UniProtKB/TrEMBL annotation:
It holds the Pfam family CTLH. It is found in: Cytoplasm. This is RING-Gid-type domain-containing protein. The lineage of its organism: Eukaryota, Haptista, Haptophyta, Prymnesiophyceae, Isochrysidales. GO terms for cellular component: cytoplasm; GID complex; nucleus. A zinc finger (RING-Gid-type) spans 350-394. Keywords: Cytoplasm, Metal-binding, Zinc, Zinc-finger. Residues 350-394 form the RING-Gid-type domain. SUPFAM superfamilies: RING/U-box. InterPro entries: CTLH/CRA, CTLH_C, Fyv10_fam, Rmd5_dRing, ZF_RING_GID, Znf-RING_euk, Znf_RING/FYVE/PHD. GO terms for molecular function: ubiquitin protein ligase activity; zinc ion binding.
Length: 408
């Protein structure tokens, strides 16, 4: 029998032993006995006899005895399962790393908010309010609004998402976000489904086309001008993709409201709303200064990616592995994370001094493209802003004045 088969059969045994449901049944039986039992109260002898008979009846049902033996059997089968799992899985000698409980609660809290589990977040607020910083607590209201907007969007109600986009219009425009276009496209499809072709056409002219063209055709007065020249220029230039997208939508006007079965059936696919939901989530989290994936999910994903290599290393180094880890105060080897998990890596260590940069000693970009900490740069230039020095990593020369501060 393979290890997995053994674990599977032991799991089945544990499931069978979990007969906790028989306890309420036996309690019900005891309640029935108690209900039907009547204390005659005639004299002490008959009362004693009645009590004795009641005692023996209750014992026959045997909750206490049955329960303790069930618990013992369950405990033994759980123990066997645990042993089998430990035997089947490699046992890395990883050191116990003390965790900051407060930080852990905060990370859990933010994760639950981002995942839309407000019931759990509220329970954390009740039970560990002291561990959650006030700015973190303030994230709940906007994230509740985000999840309400996402639910509405999936139910084809665009108004909360449109209201959010209107409130953050300047930011979205500055970032060149696709969200306004995706929402306008959903509103266009909504008009088509209702057969409101004129409203759809007006929306395409007033919202979709300007959004597809981007900022390139704004007049000095800030008004979008859709002259023939602008459109011709846009179709040939950078906005060609946006123009093509709007053109393909225009064809669907001829089929409204019977889009299903037509070549424009794709406009009814739920993926369109999902695309808008994804964009809204990204923009709303970014506006709150939060990454797309919560710190907790990134930790779990990073752990999943590096743990097999750490386990292998621990089996190679044995007990020395823990000493190496403890002495350095960090992982004993550099482990590369997949690019999708590198979103939290905002630490830059100077390649000359090997120290992480700080706001007082920021990373500086040299004209050759190499980056050093300001402290290392100052030493190379002997404190002068105009003295030329050679980059430690290439033959190019530079001065401190030529270097630019990098903001992480
Ligand atoms: Zn260089």
């Amino acid at each position: 029998m393979s290890e997995i088969d053994l674990i599977s059969s032991l799991l089945d045994k544990v499931a069978k032993k979990q007969r906790v449901d028989t306890v309420p049944q036996r309690l019900d039986e005891m309640l029935q006995i108690l209900d039907s039992w009547e204390d005659s109260g005639a004299d002490d002898d008959s009362r004693a006899a009645a009590l004795a008979s009641l005692g023996s009846k209750l014992e026959a049902v045997g909750v206490a005895q049955g329960e303790s033996s069930t618990a013992r059997e369950l405990e033994s089968s759980v123990r066997k399962l645990g042993k089998a799992v430990c035997k089947a899985m490699p046992q890395p000698t990883l050191p116990d790393v003390p965790l900051d409980d407060g930080a852990l609660v905060q990370v859990l809290y933010v994760h639950m908010l981002c995942a839309g589990r407000f019931d759990v977040a509220l329970a954390l607020e009740r039970e560990a309010a002291d561990a959650i910083a006030a700015p973190t607590l303030q994230l709940r209201a906007p994230l509740e609004a985000l999840h309400a907007a996402l639910s509405a969007l999936r139910a084809r109600d665009l108004s909360p998402a449109l209201a959010w986009a209107a409130d953050h219009r300047e930011r979205l425009e500055a970032l060149g976000s696709r969200l306004p276009f995706l929402l306008a496209r959903l509103a266009f499809v909504s008009h088509l489904e209702k057969g409101e072709t004129l409203a759809a056409l007006a929306l395409a002219r007033e919202r979709l086309l300007p959004l597809a063209l981007g900022e390139g055709c704004r007049s000095p007065r800030g008004k979008i001008e859709l002259s023939a020249t602008v459109l011709r220029g846009a179709a040939a230039g950078e906005c060609a993709h946006g123009i093509a997208a709007v053109r393909s939508l225009m064809g669907s006007l001829a089929f409204a409201p019977a889009l299903r079965g037509s070549r424009y059936e794709w406009l009814l696919e739920p993926s369109l709303a999902e695309e808008a939901c994804e964009a809204l989530t990204c923009e709303a989290l970014a506006a709150l200064g939060l990454p797309r994936g919560s710190a907790l999910s990134s930790c779990v994903a990073a752990g999943e990616a590096v743990l097999p290599r750490l386990v292998k290393l621990s089996s190679l180094l044995g007990p020395k592995f823990v000493d190496v880890w403890r002495s350095g105060g960090e992982l004993p080897v550099e482990l590369e994370l997949p690019p999708t998990h590198r979103m939290h890596h905002s630490i830059f260590a100077c390649p000359v001094s090997k120290e992480p940069t700080t706001p007082g000693n920021p990373p500086m970009l040299l004209p050759c493209g190499h980056v050093l900490a300001l402290g290392s740069l100052t030493k190379l230039a002997r404190g002068s802003r105009t003295v030329r020095f050679k980059c430690p990593y290439c033959p190019a020369e530079a001065t401190t004045a030529m270097a630019k501060v990098l903001h992480l």
